[in-house]
Amino acid sequence: MAERLREEKVFKDPVHRYIHVRDQLIWDLIGASEFQRLRRIRQLGTSYVTFHGAEHSRFNHSLGVYEIMRRILGQFGRRLSFSFSEEERLLCLSAALLHDIGHGPYSHSFEKVFHTEHEEWTRRILVGNTQVNKILRSVSDDFPWKVAAVIGKTYENPLVTSLISSQIDADRMDYLLRDTYYTGTNYGFFDMERILRVLRPLEDKVVVKHTGMHAVEDYIVARYQMYWQVYFHRVTRSAEVILRKIFERARDLYRAGYTFNWRPAHFIPLFEQNITLEEYLALDEPTVMFYMNEWCREKDEILCDLSQRFMNRRLFKYVEYGEKVGSVEWKREVDELFRSVGIDPTYYLGVDSPSDLPYDVYRSGDDGDRTPIYLLMPDGKLEELSRRSVIVESISGKRRYDHKLYYPLDLLDDGTRDPNTVREIKRRLRVHQ
Amino acid sequence: MAERLREEKVFKDPVHRYIHVRDQLIWDLIGASEFQRLRRIRQLGTSYVTFHGAEHSRFNHSLGVYEIMRRILGQFGRRLSFSFSEEERLLCLSAALLHDIGHGPYSHSFEKVFHTEHEEWTRRILVGNTQVNKILRSVSDDFPWKVAAVIGKTYENPLVTSLISSQIDADRMDYLLRDTYYTGTNYGFFDMERILRVLRPLEDKVVVKHTGMHAVEDYIVARYQMYWQVYFHRVTRSAEVILRKIFERARDLYRAGYTFNWRPAHFIPLFEQNITLEEYLALDEPTVMFYMNEWCREKDEILCDLSQRFMNRRLFKYVEYGEKVGSVEWKREVDELFRSVGIDPTYYLGVDSPSDLPYDVYRSGDDGDRTPIYLLMPDGKLEELSRRSVIVESISGKRRYDHKLYYPLDLLDDGTRDPNTVREIKRRLRVHQ
Amino acid sequence: MAERLREEKVFKDPVHRYIHVRDQLIWDLIGASEFQRLRRIRQLGTSYVTFHGAEHSRFNHSLGVYEIMRRILGQFGRRLSFSFSEEERLLCLSAALLHDIGHGPYSHSFEKVFHTEHEEWTRRILVGNTQVNKILRSVSDDFPWKVAAVIGKTYENPLVTSLISSQIDADRMDYLLRDTYYTGTNYGFFDMERILRVLRPLEDKVVVKHTGMHAVEDYIVARYQMYWQVYFHRVTRSAEVILRKIFERARDLYRAGYTFNWRPAHFIPLFEQNITLEEYLALDEPTVMFYMNEWCREKDEILCDLSQRFMNRRLFKYVEYGEKVGSVEWKREVDELFRSVGIDPTYYLGVDSPSDLPYDVYRSGDDGDRTPIYLLMPDGKLEELSRRSVIVESISGKRRYDHKLYYPLDLLDDGTRDPNTVREIKRRLRVHQ
Amino acid sequence: MAERLREEKVFKDPVHRYIHVRDQLIWDLIGASEFQRLRRIRQLGTSYVTFHGAEHSRFNHSLGVYEIMRRILGQFGRRLSFSFSEEERLLCLSAALLHDIGHGPYSHSFEKVFHTEHEEWTRRILVGNTQVNKILRSVSDDFPWKVAAVIGKTYENPLVTSLISSQIDADRMDYLLRDTYYTGTNYGFFDMERILRVLRPLEDKVVVKHTGMHAVEDYIVARYQMYWQVYFHRVTRSAEVILRKIFERARDLYRAGYTFNWRPAHFIPLFEQNITLEEYLALDEPTVMFYMNEWCREKDEILCDLSQRFMNRRLFKYVEYGEKVGSVEWKREVDELFRSVGIDPTYYLGVDSPSDLPYDVYRSGDDGDRTPIYLLMPDGKLEELSRRSVIVESISGKRRYDHKLYYPLDLLDDGTRDPNTVREIKRRLRVHQ
């Protein structure tokens, strides 16, 4: 079943040094056009606006997750004499490699505006009429469905699932290290090698040998820091807000029968909420960028202005939203004030409210469907991590929000608006001048 | 003249840790649309095909060159009490930042096929009707011309020029370190901090204090290694060859009156060799990718096949070209054999012959217009580097070539060709089976 | 007053890359014999037993603290236009360089057994008849006293003091990074450059610009991790316990009139609690090692056995001490049992109870005399760190203890003891077999 | 024969991240007192005087060589299905671990003055009455002799020998990386992982797959740089010269019947050239330091002065020796001039002439008994490295010397000497003032 390559293939990787491929299956999957397409989708969406180094693709990250999985299985075999069946071994590796294959360009904004879900597209790519599907079926007819089940967390052996998506999995370990490397920040760094050595497969889950507690603590803090220092960076989010507004404006214009200079052929199926798998796969970041470039020259002032802002990093400012400012009433008044100085709040006022639950003990909520981390104590019993670590306990189960309202300060100051109203707007937005 | 920012701006950079901006001029240049455009052009063109980490942009590199220049000037000031006039200080910084601004997408292939020159476009961007030009003129009316002169190596003060383009300059130092970092190889690493400390401005050039000789040796070897290990990697070049063939095919089709599914509007000015500055600036990698994606569905088989090869990394194989194989006669015969099995050699046989002159003493030839590196000896005299270093001497003045002929092995093996001719072709191409 | 060196001196340092010396005063202090002596005292005492890389000296660390201080002052000057008087500048640098000069060999064990205090010896070296004192007096007659006051935290300007000893100071920043580097662990790593950029001198203390909160969080967690992962490592502490027992045994033998093979001349003033400055300075690690080597051949079995254990890493095992085991009564019984199988508990049972207070808000207790860390908020107000950071809050003010009882398992198992008693001892010590 | 540990032991190592021990034999050897003694001997002798970070011990390095050997064998097994017999596997590992076990303190100076040879002591420790010997004999009676044969390069299977001592072996790879890490220089860095992947056992030697040529080039240049930048650093050599003079003076005094304050018991067997294995093993760096400390207080002025110089880094200056200065005649005159101002040239003038042969093709000379490096070409033939690499060719077979004469400039300037003679001496020594 599992054909080995005559000679191991090796990729040079800045994060894991080398990525090793020994199975024909994996080699073929990497060559599939749906996988190569991940080269054209950046791992961190708009983060490059803030951290110019963060230009790495999901292709990059997917190889990394695969490599970590390969090393975990190697450790299990070499040190613990534990091994999966040959099919489950390939399942682990394929699921690791393909877990993000459904992602589109700038997923975060894209999905919010167009109501697509990358998880759903992942499933469709795996089981639909694709190169990836054909390759997976070389293992067995139901293999694509099994890979989809693992990624969708419904696979029968939860041990396999937990290696890819739990609170300490191959996916998270790779993205923390990789995003740290490319952004040049150090927050996401932790001793992965140590963690790999203390992971233990135990019935239906992976647990951590108690001597590794501090290494895992370090990993949890690394993840926490990356969320607040990198992923939720206020400047990145300003770019995200603008991107969403661009997509909304283009969609609204299309629906209103507006004639574009350059017909947005690739976007129309999205605007009409009627997109095929083939059309979805044709949507990558260069395509979005191509239209954005054109939109910089559109006659519609709003679409044109927003696109130029995005391309040339002329971003929105923000005000913290929530304590004294931020009620529905307050927002309605600000909207009105914007309208009265000729700025459409639909496209020029954007609320962004990311939140993160850095670690959770219970199986509830969106992130909460990840099992907690258990320490394997010397006496053979399991103890949940946050009961031993005050640091983890301090951030456990606490969802933290960050609400911000983004707005174009430069427009207010362009000299064409009524000074009194502008002053009033600024007072409400707490602009210090 | 040189307005300082109220508060220093800082970019996080994985290579230099932080990039510091203190001048309003530099801040404004970074925000110019022509500079932001460099975010959409990768530093290493097709190298990402071989080294998946190498997805960084010229924006990235340009900031790095600027930062190195800033540090060189800082060292000169702090340690040597040497400083340029305020205008020349800004000139150094601006030229460092903008030295690559004329680059287009995949310059290497692009320029070969379309006979454009990024140096010429740099000049046109600096002195033409652009945001960059407007910002530069805020210093003085002839400042854009001065920046162009520095980059073009015709500026009156050769000391300024040599900081940006000599055999040891801010440009080279940044790209070696940066390309090493992103590819994950270690070949390009050297101790830049040490080199910065031993650089000495001396009349019309920058020399190196003799105690730094081994550090400079290390830099020269690093550069040499990067050329042969990374820049001229055989797999990258295969992608380059295919890219050139794609451009050639598209151009030939256009000229032949072929009707494209999707009219290649952005390419037509190039095909007609009649491209304006604005049209040139609209050409970035996403645009090329956009068309390439479309060409994957073109009815012309050659354009379609080549585009799919490029997108999905189905590359050409190669044969070393030059010793026993490779004469004009030999090539003509191989062309004929290809034709006889129905493969057009114009688009399916590509010769690639990069060469490098790692270090040169004399002022002749293309790279040779870079002054040699001088060591400042204890007695105050200058000695040319290769006279003191056997390692540098060993590679000095020796241009090394690498000729390869690229061809599609899979096409020959697709089962539709005459087996005898295919066997004969393989014999000539020395395919081991 | 402050003579500058004609040419800056530079030390290559693996942690800070380069250490720069520009003042004659600093250069002279580094050359003083009392400072060179720090080359012969390891930074981490017995940690090398656990982490073989940790062989670096206090000389190493002292240079590092100096360099960080130099960079802090540089940042203050360049970015904030804040500068100390020339005398206080030298005071900062000298105090940073000399803050550990009173340390003896294996201070931790040494001070416990012989009741010396390195802080007191630091003071005596600074103001006594030493080379360091002579050099410091070249600044002004009372300069040595001022340096002593800064190190002793009694200097009149608390801003100066806080740069060297507060909860985020040059000393801590260097040792975390340095000990991390040499041990090869990653726990102590944090982004020092970022922290230096957000430090702000504000009246009598150094505060942190609010944008640096997460970087400081990272530093606090790094420190916390290093304490539990490195400094309090159970194996290191086993070596510490043995070392203390050796010193105690040698002292007790001396007091009992025992005749040593090799008269412990250098230790006698300590044994007699009557040691001069010159005698103290002659005590370095090689001296201790020299005697330890000799003691490996002493006829007294206990001194000989303990010394061989230390030299050849034949360490004690431990039992967690405190929950069910560990009462005074329990300990008395274990002592008795040891005695009954012929092992003297005075020298073969050692309790070790390190504790750490990772961060504290109040000015009480031993570590608590360090001021809390304040964030400088956008509105100009100060907020104490743990009020903004849940992570810091979680470890703030909580002193954590770790009690262990160390004992020689191999002695119990040497086959010469009564098996029933040994079994009983093991049961009490919870030895799993 | 080869008992495996129940659980793998792991050492944290800054260079190789982790060092893995799975064999009881290796674990026992590491615990042997002769091996633990290597903790008390620095890897780079006096280099710490120049590079303060270089305080790491031979213990450190020996573990590293062992780990590289373990990885080489792992690669051979996993990738090439090549394996040694179980005995030869242990032989490789043991020889790697123990190859430096005969080293004494400051070997370089020590061996020159006292005519000891660490290779000979290695042999004696392996086959003599030692713990190491006893442990090795647990494999087989002649196993210690086999280990000695491998280290002495007389073992019957040259493949085994070449893994430990050839021009690219586990020893060299470790010391380059390790010394680079601890000094903080970057010169010795190369991509070891890559090299391990291209090593191929081929009959009686290890060859390099041709694709690894540039990685090996990098390694050769790294080695070359380390010799001239670190190992032969002029300041380190000044300390070496002084150390030799101290040893010579102490020996000469002893022979002349001088009465030392503190009888140099540990040195006397050396002075009398009649030293036993036990006495040799008792000589470590702390012992040498202990006496040096005492000698700083000796009444003999020369011994006292030289010792203080060494301890407090008051070093000699140097003059390049060889071009215009340096003939026998010239030296005799300088000696005479020194004598005439009351400075004994025997102890105050020292010539130091290290040389290095960075790579050699032939089997002649001291370093030359190392086989050249062969590349395994695609056609299965071997080609010697320097025939393919111009860089290696440039330094191949060229022994480079560096002669320097060291002298105490400060003594000449102490104001007690005849000014005219001093002026004449300085003229001859080319002192620039």
From TrEMBL, chains A, B, C, D:
SUPFAM superfamilies with a match to the protein in the record: HD-domain/PDEase-like (SSF109604)
Every HD domain range: 58-176
One MF term in GO for this entry?
dGTPase activity
Read off the InterPro entries from this record.
dGTPase-like (IPR050135), HD/PDEase_dom (IPR003607), HD_assoc_2 (IPR045509), HD_domain (IPR006674)
| Pfam families referenced in this protein's UniProt entry, alphabetically | HD, HD_assoc_2
Task: Please give a single GO biological process term from the UniProt record.
Answer: dGTP catabolic process
Protein name as catalogued:
HD domain-containing protein
Native organism is Aneurinibacillus danicus
- The gene that this protein is the product of is ywfO
